[in-house]
């Protein structure tokens, strides 16, 4: 066999192995889209994050989910999001102004409205909608 043929065979074999291995093991978790709204003081939260962490104490084990809040709405299937597994979850929500108004290092330079509001939900084994109303007592006191 010529040198050129050997290189072609090696290339084809390498591509075949890569195709069989893929990018990693398949995810064993069934994830579902979670959409919803976040309000604070009766208004949509302009920007922030929602985190869903499975409640291990309640027997729910798996990867966390998250979504960005944009104009009071979130969607775990949007860019920079990750869908959730079903079952009981701890939820952490933080909210801030959309731009780097007055510096607050904890929120990437944007003015924080509140930080780490915590609650819990039980997510179904299908797509769902959640509405969170962050209480006024969660307001973040910041001295500039």
From the structure above, extract its key features.
144 residues; 8 strands; 4-stranded antiparallel sheet
Structure explained in plain terms:
This protein has one helix and eight strands, in the order αββββββββ. It is mainly beta and 144 residues long. The protein has one domain: Immunoglobulin-like. A hairpin with a 2-residue loop joins strand 1 and strand 2. It starts with a helix and ends in a 10-residue tail after the last strand.
User: How many domains in all?
Assistant: 1
The succession of helices and strands, N to C, reads: HEEEEEEEE
User: Based on helices, strands and strand pairing, what is the structural class?
Assistant: mainly beta
Strand content: 35-45%
What share of residues is helical?
10-25%
- The first-to-last residue Cα distance is 75 Å
Global morphology: globular
Q: What count of helical segments does DSSP give?
A: 1
- The unreliable regions are 13-24
Q: Mean pLDDT, as a whole number?
A: 81
CATH class: Mainly Beta
Please tell me the CATH architecture by its name: Sandwich
The name of the CATH topology is Immunoglobulin-like
Tell me the radius of gyration.
22 Å
The major sheet is characterized as: 4 strands, mixed
Number of strands: 8
């Amino acid at each position: 066999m010529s040198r050129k043929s050997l290189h072609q065979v090696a290339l084809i074999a390498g591509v075949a192995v890569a195709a069989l291995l893929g990018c990693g093991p398949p995810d064993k978790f069934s994830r579902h889209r979670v959409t919803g709204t976040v309000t604070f003081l009766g208004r949509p939260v302009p920007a922030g994050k929602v985190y869903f962490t499975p409640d291990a104490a309640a027997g729910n084990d798996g990867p966390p989910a998250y979504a960005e809040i944009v104009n009071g709405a979130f969607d775990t299937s949007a860019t920079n999001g990750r869908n959730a597994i079903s079952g009981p979850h701890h939820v952490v929500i933080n909210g801030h102004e959309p731009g780097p108004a007055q510096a607050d290092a904890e929120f990437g330079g944007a003015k924080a409205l509140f930080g780490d509001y915590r609650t819990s939900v039980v997510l179904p084994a299908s797509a769902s909608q959640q509405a969170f109303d962050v209480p006024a007592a969660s307001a973040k006191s910041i001295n500039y």
